[in-house]
């Protein structure tokens, strides 16, 4: 495999960082240096460590910084926040699609006015929201029993339809892509086209999966059209038989590279 192909594969992998402090985070990132393309950091860690420390952390290990903030506020507030994050040289950032066109466009205008332009990714729906919660929120209509009996997958189809609508609304505003669950990759790729970036979590290599809890693998996700895969525990806490985080990250990289460039 050519070095350039391995770099392309590496850039698809995002590590979901889970660390108590910046020193521990640096140790982890130093171990997987060269095998991941970006590090995902949430609002909680940034609140604790501070934005300057987080950006310094990413630059020390030469990896891209993905802030999964899921911004959702008034357009002016979101625009100001995106401007600040652009100045801090963040590489990827999430926003709630449900914030509406005015909020998303304010974020895009702030990004486009900056010399550093991160990818802006929409979050159509939070992963914990199931059908019953969406009904209680007024976002779904309760289905009659005969409909569920006739179509057992009716609830999931309704949720998928809502996800597609929100992702498409973000795309029409100008967002670069969207977050999605593994089972939504194929549908969103067909619905939003090949140029809309898709990022998915909840993906595990086979060697890290718990028996009886089958999950989509990095190879499967890439082949379905996912642009970025988020990997957490498989690298951070690899199972017995995998000799540490360095080996785990390299194994994920090998799998992604083989999916992109079959030998």
From TrEMBL:
Pathway participation: Pyrimidine metabolism; UMP biosynthesis via de novo pathway; UMP from orotate: step 2/2
Residues holding substrate: 213, 232
The Orotidine 5'-phosphate decarboxylase domain, residue ranges: 12-252
EC numbers for this chain: 4.1.1.23
One BP term from GO: 'de novo' UMP biosynthetic process
An MF annotation (GO) of this entry: orotidine-5'-phosphate decarboxylase activity
This protein's UniProt keywords: Decarboxylase, Lyase, Pyrimidine biosynthesis
Active site residues per record: 68, 70, 73
Coiled-coil region(s): none
GO cellular component, one term: cytosol
PANTHER family hit by this protein: OROTIDINE 5'-PHOSPHATE DECARBOXYLASE
Function description: Catalyzes the decarboxylation of orotidine 5'-monophosphate (OMP) to uridine 5'-monophosphate (UMP).
Protein's recorded name: Orotidine 5'-phosphate decarboxylase
Species of the source: Candidatus Uhrbacteria bacterium CG22_combo_CG10-13_8_21_14_all_47_17
Lineage of source species: Bacteria, Candidatus Uhriibacteriota
């Amino acid at each position: 495999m050519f070095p350039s192909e391995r770099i392309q594969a590496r850039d698809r992998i995002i590590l979901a960082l889970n660390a108590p402090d910046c020193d521990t985070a640096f140790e982890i990132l130093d171990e997987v240096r060269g095998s991941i393309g970006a590090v995902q950091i949430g609002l909680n860690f940034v609140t604790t460590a501070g934005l300057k420390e987080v950006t310094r952390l990413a630059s020390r290990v030469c990896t891209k910084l993905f802030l999964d903030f899921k911004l959702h506020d008034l357009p002016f507030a979101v625009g100001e926040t995106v401007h600040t994050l652009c100045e801090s040289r963040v590489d990827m950032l999430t926003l709630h699609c449900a914030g509406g066109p005015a909020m998303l466009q304010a974020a895009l205008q702030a990004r486009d006015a900056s010399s550093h332009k991160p990818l802006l990714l929409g979050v159509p729906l939070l992963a914990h929201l199931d059908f019953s919660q969406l009904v209680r929120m007024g976002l779904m209509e309760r289905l009659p029993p005969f409909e569920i009996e006739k179509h057992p997958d009716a609830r999931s189809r309704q949720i998928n339809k809502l996800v597609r609508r929100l992702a498409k609304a973000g795309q029409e505003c100008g967002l670069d892509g969207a977050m999605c669950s593994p089972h939504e990759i194929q549908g969103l790729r067909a619905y939003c086209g090949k140029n809309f970036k898709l990022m998915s979590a909840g993906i595990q290599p086979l060697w890290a999966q718990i028996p009886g809890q089958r999950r989509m693998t990095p190879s499967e996700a890439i082949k379905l059209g996912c642009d970025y895969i988020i990997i957490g525990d498989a690298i951070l806490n690899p199972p017995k038989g995998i000799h540490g985080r360095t080996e785990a990250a390299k194994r994920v990289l090998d799998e992604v590279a083989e999916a992109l460039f079959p030998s």
